[in-house]
Amino acid sequence: MKLEHKNILVDNVNIHYVESGQSTEANNVSAVAGITALKPTIIFLHGFPEYWGTWSAQLSFFSPHYRVIAPDLPGYNLSDKPDDISFYAVPNLIGFMAKFIAAISPTQPVFLVAHDWGGAIAWPLAAFHAQLISKLIIVNAAHPSTFTREMINNPLQRKKSAYIHQLISASGESLLTQDDYRYLSEDIMVSTNPSVFTAAVKAQYKQVWSQAGAINGMLQYYRAMPQLAENDTDNQRCNSTTASSLDTTSTQNDTTKSSPVKQASQLKVPNIRINVPTLILWGEQDLAFVNENLDNIHHYVPNCTIKRFQDTSHWLQHERPDEVNVAINNFIND
Question: Residue 258: how many CB atoms within 10 A of its CB?
């Protein structure tokens, strides 16, 4: 597989991405029964605290027959990192990534694969820009409606989300950078398969995290969250961080941004309904999401297929790459 590193300007924000397959639209074709047509495009969106490389196994698997593209999300790695926190508000990210997809594939809808924060963007993007997406594949990313429901009603989900309070605190950046990114490499990237995140893999991730502004950029997503339930457990990863100690200014450059933290009873469940055919691949040992996020998901996503992976964590595409590839391939060719 030959990967090409490219850049595209969207709303004056430079997005770095990798692409495999033919490099120009003229060459990006396949002949079937004597008919020349553009190869289908698959776009992969990563989450926190990753970069395009999380999809290496998928890019290699699908590149022979598809045009495959994996960007660094804005704020991450080699993409631009806008200073304005409002850029990272979900409604803006939805519109921004819709423009990215339209620019990447102007003549045909794409298959969209997304994990974690990439999924948090992809869910509503599929709801509000369905014309851009032929099929949606979600890898361990809770639907915003069921996630908010669980945040309201499920103490275990609030406990699993307690780490976010650390990330949006005044000490969030120092927490992530201290001791050679120990928190990210040892506390966040925890796999059920110890052989997944090797020393070499972690070294690559540390290089990604060390890009100028990258730590701040990835934290902006959490600072701009529309709503976050208060902690109601003492079993936090960092006992010194509480809702009362949050940096409600979020960044030194934005003194007007209020904290997203609310009482659970004040959270509002968004009504995000998706009609695009959707596949959810779900590792059941996810440290960030309770499995109840899948309960009644068909209310919001009626055309939805769920494939569960027991004894598999949040990092499903790392731990079970072959099975993930087969599941995606079967779904998009069904």
Answer: 8
* Confidence (pTM): 0.89
Q: What confidence tens digit (pLDDT) does each residue in 243-274 have?
A: 333 333 333 333 334 578 888 888 899 999 99
Mean pLDDT, to the nearest integer, of 266-291? Answer: 96
Six-digit token pair at 290?
A: 């309770």
Secondary structure of 120-149 as H, E, C letters: HHHHHHHHHCHHHEEEEEEECCCCHHHHHH
Distances (CA, A) of 2 to 23, 44, 152, 265, 324: 11, 17, 46, 51, 21
Q: How far apart are CA 104 and CA 114, in angstroms?
A: 16
Residues paired with residue 288 on neighbouring β-strands, in sequence order: none
Tokens of 89: 């508000």
CA distance 81 to 108: 29
CB atoms closer than 10 angstroms to residue 159: 16
Residue 287's Cα: distance from chain center in Å?
A: 15
